[in-house]
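Technical annex B. To support the medicinal chemistry partners, we prepared a structural model of the target in complex with magnesium ion, based solely on the information shown next.
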Amino acid sequence: MSQSSIIHLEGVTKQFSRNASPAVDAVTLTLQQGDLLGLLGPSGCGKTTLLRLVAGFERRLSGTIEIAEKRVAGSGNWVPPERRDVGMVFQDYALFPHLSVAKNVAFGLRDTSKKFSNELRKRVKEALALVRLEGLEDRYPHELSGGQQQRVSLARALAPRPSLILLDEPLSNLDVQVRLRLRQELRDILKAAVTSAIFVTHDQEEALSISDYVAVMWKGQIEQFGTPEEIYTEPASRFVAEFVTQANFLPARRSGEVWETEVGDFHLNHGAANSDEAELMIRQEDLLLIPDDNASVVIRDCQFLG
Ligand code: ADP
Ligand code: MG
C-alpha cells in the first residue's frame, strides 16, 4: 500500500475578524491515502471552518494546505475549489429540488444537459449502486426519505471519483434509527469507493465507530490525533477524556501505596507521582455495584436507559 499523504496541513490558521480569536488555530495534521478521519469536537470549535479551508471555500488563511501532496493554499499558492479534486457532502443534503436523482448525481460530473451520454449514464448508475439506491434514478428529492436524500448527496460527491471526500455532519439531520444504519454503511461505502475522507461530527460515538483516525478539536485547535482506541484508552487531556469518552473524575488523596477516593481505594503504579492529591479518571464500565447493607452510600438518582 502506498504511504503518500492525501492531506497535509501545516499551521493552518483562520481568523474571521481582528478582535475574534481564530476559528482555526495553527492546525497541523497529516492523513494517509485511503484513510478515514473523524474530525470531532463541540459546536463552534472550528470543524466546519477547517473543512471549508480544505475545500477552498475560505481564503485569507495562514499556514499551508496540501492535498495529495500538491500545495493548494498558502505561501502564495491558490488552487480554486473546483480544481482540488475534492467532493463535499453537507448536513442538509443540498440537493437540487428541481432535478431528478440521476441529474443531481450527474451534476457532480458537471453535466446537466438533457441528453445523457452512455458514459454519463454508466457513471451515475455506478455511483447510485455504491450508495445502494439502484432504481431510484427518476425520483425527485421530495419523493425520498432523509436517509435516501443523503445517499444521493453522497453519490453526487462520489461520482467524479475524487481523491478526497469531505462530509460535514452528514448524519445529524437524520432520525436515530436511520442515522445508526447509515453510519454503519457510510464506512463501507467510502471504503468500497477507495477514497479518503474527512468526516465532521460532534457525536463521539459516531467518530469513534467509523473512523480510522480521530482528530479531537477544541477552540480551533487539535487536542489529540490518534486511532479511536488511542483516543479512548489514552486521552491526552481532560477535555478529551470528558468530551470524547465521558469519563468521570474523582478527587483522590494518596495514603501510602493507595489512592483513596469516596468510592474506594485504588492501587496505582503510575501518574501524579509528585503529588499527594490528584483526580482519578474512572469510566462507568470500570464500576461494579454490589449491594451492601452496611455501606454508607446513598443512591440519589437513577435513570433507566434500556
Ligand atoms: P463548528 O463547525 O465546529 O460548529 P465553525 O467552524 O462553524 O464551528 O465556527 C467556528 C467559529 O468561527 C465560531 O466561533 C463561529 O462563530 C466562527 N465563524 C464561522 N464562520 C464565520 C464567518 N463566516 N464569519 C465570522 N465568524 C465565523
Ligand atoms: Mg459546523
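Notes passed to the chemistry partners:
The pocket of adenosine-5'-diphosphate (ligand 1) is lined by residues 16, 23, 41, 43-49 (CB under 6 Å).
The chain has a mean pLDDT of 91.
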